């Protein structure tokens, strides 16, 4: 009975430490790499929760299995150290996996926005990004746009590459600053009041996003957003093309 109590106590202490470490990792992942709405659009939340839950449970369960005061102190320390190393290695692997798949840019692409992830950007094109653009930022997605094609041949070649799995928005050689594309964004932006009129079943979600933007609905426009596994809607200021909100709504 005493042995079981000591094991449960040791496992509980280990669980508390594991939860604290997991909370710090979550603050990094969701506060920096996957801010809202990218934790939803890019699937970061589910991936992180799965990896961390496995890691958090693994360590305390192993501690519960091996902890025994009757063991020689050196042997017990060795067992706990091995568990700690295994758990830390699993956590580092999980966080690195989430980091490698993080969203790095929100790119205006012709008539929509697309979320670009670190793994999407071809390594051989990273050196061809415009001056001043961080190709793989560590601090959350930045706003960019596709530049106009320089020739019909470039357009055809880029389209063929896109058909092979490399989206136009993931190519650094086609990026430009968002400021340069504001007139093009406004030219294709769609009326948000019109969307609300056509999608009455989604009126509450649209109204909530409008309220959070702090702007009247007549001053807003929208464009579709393509993510890794879902489609959302980007809210835009109708005068400046500033991104002012997101709606979990497929507006394609």
Give structural attributes.
single chain, 2 domains, eight-stranded mixed β-sheet, 8 strands
User: In this structure, how is the largest beta sheet organized?
Assistant: 8 strands, mixed
Terminus-to-terminus distance:
63 Å
Low-confidence runs (pLDDT<50, min 5 residues)? none
Number of strands: 8
Please tell me how large the radius of gyration is. Answer: 24 Å
Element layout with pairings:
Layout: H1 2-33, H2 38-41, H3 44-66, H4 73-100, E1 103-109, E2 112-117, E3 142-146, H5 152-163, E4 175-177, H6 178-188, E5 190-191, H7 192-198, H8 203-213, E6 220-226, E7 231-237, E8 243-247
Helix pairs in contact: 1-3, 3-4
Task: Describe the structure in your own words.
- It contains eight helices and eight strands; from the N terminus they run ααααβββαβαβααβββ.
- By secondary structure, it is an alpha+beta fold.
- It has two domains: 2-100, no CATH class; 105-247, no CATH class.
- A hairpin with a 4-residue loop joins strand 6 (220-226) and strand 7 (231-237).
- The mean pLDDT is 87.
